[in-house]
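User: Please run a holo structure prediction.
Assistant: Happy to. Please share the sequence and the ligand.
User: Here you go; the ligand is cytidine-5'-monophosphate.
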Amino acid sequence: MACRIAIDGPAGSGKTTVARLVAQRLGISYLDTGAMYRIVGLHLSRKGANVKSSSLKDYLKDLRIEYTDGNFYVNGTPVGEEIRTPEAGMYASLYAAHPDVREFLTRIQKEICKERNIVAEGRDIGTVVIPDAEVKIFLVASPEVRAKRRYFELIAKGYKVQYEDVLREIIERDQNDSKRDIAPLSKAVDAVEIDTSDLSIEEVVDMIIKLVRERCWEKF
Ligand code: C5P
């Protein structure tokens, strides 16, 4: 049986860094589902798709997202840093509330996670994508801590951003993601919650690895 590790939580909770390290330490695959919502968000915004439209299916027909060795390809072209901007994050969050977008990406994600050892991170992994995951983690941290992390991350990448704007964007995205009707950001009843506000990345990774060894003892 495969060992599937679901890591969910709000923007800046440390999901991406932690999930990547856990996958690396265990030597298994890693899936960043937020990247997929960013890809679709950018695609739809470039096409001028109205988020309130009853159907977005036509816009998604010509979009082929592939995932190979931890990298995404859109219609054969590798995806780069363009999906990491704050705007791409906002588009992702806006279009992620649309049922057609969720159906489109959930189907691909379920397929990627099928019968394979994987760490998948996002907002609805433990509730929708892998509801029967062997290990479910829900990471939390205060909005200020999360905004500070995102701020330093963006500055390091050369973006000229203000802390206050990053904090506002984080709070806005939290609201979009928690209040939407379909697959909102929420903790699965059987998920283990970890508050990362005062923990180092290594401490969080160690806690998760310990849980994985308990639940998937025959593999690791
Ligand atoms: O994780 P990241 O911040 O890159 O995700 C960008 C956006 O994609 C989130 O704010 C959320 O709206 C959406 N998302 C989602 N479900 C997921 C992953 C991301 O709705 N599983």
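The chain has a mean pLDDT of 95.
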